Amino acid sequence: MRWYFVLILALLSTGVFAQDAPVAEAAAAVPDPAIKAVSDELATLRSETNWLWTCIAAFLVFFMQAGFAYVEAGFTRAKNVVNILMKNFIDFCFGSIFFWLIGFSIMFGPQIFPGFGIGIPGLADSLIVKDGTPDKWGFAFLIFQMVFAATAATIVSGAMAERTKFVSYIIFSALITAFIYPIFGSLAWAGLWGLGKGFLEQQGFIDFAGSTVVHSVGGWAGLAGALILGPRIGKYQDGKLFPILGHNMSMAALGVFILWFGWFGFNPGSTTSVSGGNFAVIAVTTNMSAAAGALSAMILTWIMFKKPDIGLSLNGALAGLVAITSPCANVSISSAVIIGLIAGILVVLSVLFFDRIHIDDPVGAVSVHGVCGAWGTFAAGLFAQESYGGVNGLFFGGELSVVLVQLTGIGIAFVWSFGASSIIFLALKYTIGLRVSEDEEITGLDILEHGNEAYPISK
Q1: Average pLDDT over residues 137-156
Q2: What are the φ and ψ backbone dihedral angles of 268, each rounded to 5 degrees?
Q3: What angle is formed at CA 453 by the lines to CA 254 and CA 447, rounded to 5 degrees?
Q4: Within a 10 A sphere around the Cβ of 54, how many other Cβ atoms?
Q5: Transmembrane segments in this chain: where (predicted)?
Q6: Is residue 11 assigned to a domain?
Q7: Backbone angles phi, psi at 159, to 5 degrees
Q8: Do residues 126 and 40 touch, judged by C-beta distance below 8 A?
Q9: Half-sphere exposure of 124 toward its Cβ, with a 13 Å CA cutoff?
Q10: Per-residue confidence at 221, pLDDT binned at 50, 70, 90?
């Protein structure tokens, strides 16, 4: 019977019965408790639809772990594939546990310093279970934030590929998801749980889905690791660069397609709601920036090297995706294309720059996530439009303060993530060790670290 009343109310709301006096009078005669029951039912349905969308988006972001694994495996040598797959697999497992144990409450819990953002460490259960009763929205929110934390962790593995001890890497994965990522995230996103906004949120910082909160934090951590590790054997000799090519571009390309697909959960899913249709706008801006980034990277490599480069073109798409992650809800399609085009150029120049200064990043993770994450966050302060996200950037009549807040967030993220990661990596280096031995690196990490091979030779 309740669906009869739902239908009546829906038709009334659309004006279908506006000219039908007898039906309108009949609706008016419906007892108030029945109307309230239907209203409650609609409210519950709306909430549960939002929970469903948030969980589906979380599942898409989880699938991005497969994308990262394939991109990084494709860009590395065959003798290290098992190692890179293990890192991308286990960092999600460690990340889930430690974000639940500590990270979630630091990011969203009651604040140690009210108005600053950093929460009191503790189990996520303390926030999503009240008096023994599960808060169903809390569980949806937790899984969504958990897969974001794991993304920040897995970015690091690519920058440190082919020479990092497995045990040292997984220790760092636990620490970045427990402390490094959530502490900065609390400054930008603490208010999402409703217990008080973080410092950057209060200033109007725009980072809708995490160009800086997720990607730059992971990218700058990877930069710290690559610097402290040093380059792979044979990469730089007598001041010259000797490229070390990845073993499987098919695998890398499939990984990028998976990541692109997963990004439709990453960005549109950050609405955590289907109301208003904003997720559709975000899906379009996300897609267009990725396409533009791939094209500009391809064209630039074609001009510079006389041939279109597959590796940098793939990274161009990822650069566009990373860059649009911050402003995706605040910009038009045209602006998204411009942001992506610039990101594709930046990632190529950045990869070449880091090679020139002998910082060895096998997959370009620092350039894609650190540099282009910073660019996307800065771009939000330039291209934001009030009609999309409620605030105008500098190019649309906004104040300079909008840009300055973005630069402040970018700066804090770099200092915090690079600084904290450097301390952890140095501590690991001088205790259990960070880098494998020269013999292990030459032989390959698969056999000596895992006793297995990705491509065993049949006898």
Answers
A1: 96
A2: -60, -35
A3: 130
A4: 23
A5: 50-71, 92-113, 137-159, 166-188, 208-229, 241-266, 278-303, 310-327, 333-354, 366-384, 404-428
A6: no
A7: -65, -25
A8: no
A9: 22
A10: very high
Does the residue 300 lie in any domain?
Answer: yes
Is residue 9 a part of any domain in this protein? no
DSSP β-bridge partners for residue 164: 435
The tokens for 435 are 């880098």
What is the pLDDT, as a whole number, of residue 82? Answer: 97
Q: For position 120, which CATH number holds? A: 1.10.3430.10
- Residue whose entry in the numeric block shows the structure tokens 């559709």: 280
pTM given for the model:
0.90
Is the pLDDT assigned to residue 9 strictly greater than 90?
no
What does the pLDDT read at residue 46? Answer: 82
Report the pLDDT value the prediction gives residue 48, as an integer from 0 to 100: 85
* Domain containing residue 390: 50-435
**Residue 19 has what pLDDT?**
41
pLDDT given for residue 142 in this prediction: 97
Residue 372 and residue 319 in contact, taking contact as beta carbons nearer than 8 Å:
yes
Residues whose CB is less than 8 angstroms from the CB of residue 163 and which lie 6 or more positions away in sequence, other chains included: 229, 230, 232, 233, 435, 436, 441, 445
Report which residue type is found at 414. F
- Domain-located, residue 358: yes
The structural domain count of the chain equals 1
Tokens of 82: 């098992």
Buried b (16+ CB within 10 A) or exposed e, 410-420: bebbbebbbeb
Q: Is the pLDDT of residue 396 over 60?
A: yes
Give the pLDDT band (50/70/90) at residue 130.
confident
Rounded distance between C-alpha atoms, residue 253 and residue 251, angstroms: 6
